[in-house]
Amino acid sequence: MLAVRSHRAGEPLRIENVPEPEPQGAEVRVRVAGCGVCHTDLHVARTDRLRVTRPITLGHEIAGWLDAAGPEAAGPMRRARVAIGDPVLVYGGWGCGACRECARGEDQRCEQSEAPGFQRDGGYAEQVLVANARYLVPLRDLDPVEAAPLADAGVTPYRAVVRATPWLTPGTRVLLIGFGGLGQFAIQYLRRLPDLTVAVRELDPDKLALAAELGADLGLLAGDESLVTLGLGGHADVVFDFVGTDDTLDYAARNVEPGGLISLVGEAGGHLSFGFDRPPVETYATTTAWGSLADLREVVRLASRGRLRWSVERMPLRKARSAHDRLLAGKVKGRIVLTP
Description:
Elements: E1 2-6, E2 14-17, E3 28-36, H1 39-46, E4 56-57, E5 61-69, H2 74-80, E6 87-90, H3 100-103, E7 127-130, E8 136-138, H4 144-147, H5 155-163, E9 173-177, H6 181-190, E10 197-202, H7 205-214, E11 218-221, H8 226-232, E12 236-241, H9 246-254, E13 256-264, E14 284-287, H10 293-304, E15 312-316, H11 320-328, E16 335-339
Parallel strand pairs: 9-10, 9-12, 10-11, 12-13, 13-14, 15-16
Antiparallel strand pairs: 1-2, 1-4, 3-5, 3-7, 3-16, 5-6, 6-8
Helix pairs in contact: 5-6
């Protein structure tokens, strides 16, 4: 089968023919309909910063059809309410299933986790093995290609917004840094909460236009910081950084209120200097990585009911390198989904 693989950080991706995977034990196999292209895929391909086992087939936003199961998969399939032939979305936080975090339903925080596109072969391929059927979410009437971005771009900002809920009370000022695939979902989750003022900081004027269309109160073209306090009426109470560079985290620290929250979501490798002088006194800082399996099920439920809006651009799997180049150049407005 066809697969797009990374053999060494910084080297061009290789398009290869590899054997079809056969599920063992409780594993199941998914015939891939589409796999989203995420900025994290760029970091995996280009750097050694993330915990990655190479050679590796990239891709963690995976949807398709369940097409084979190992001899011990019947029970997990029944509990997940999936059967051979069903359209499914693949949850990416594959935990060990036995530790404290997994018992809490927080598999994505498991210290022994193995994720597709990181430690296990992912969805830039015609087929993918999934560690256990419990990591499949039924899609019912959703198109698997269109649904693929929900596995990360949809669930990660959902998790970030839910975790920020104690700060997101009526009258709260919110700043989003970056308005790519994740930011576009985030603003829709924020708009489900009452009486928030939401600003978006972006480099691309076209993305600011889309932000306004999706409900942003203020668009900030990267530049004059005085516009933040002028437009919001003060520093932000909550800052979501969907980029995650040193520069964007420093920007967040300069523009958050004392006692406010900085939520780092983007994985560009930046770091936040921490002390009594910056961020402001008693500021909270947190990170978000994916979401729980329960979070993903809720995102799929919202999408199934037409409560979410997102755009997908389909590209052939063989053009994965071009997809990465375009994303790196900032020339993607929604989500590219690679299709075998």
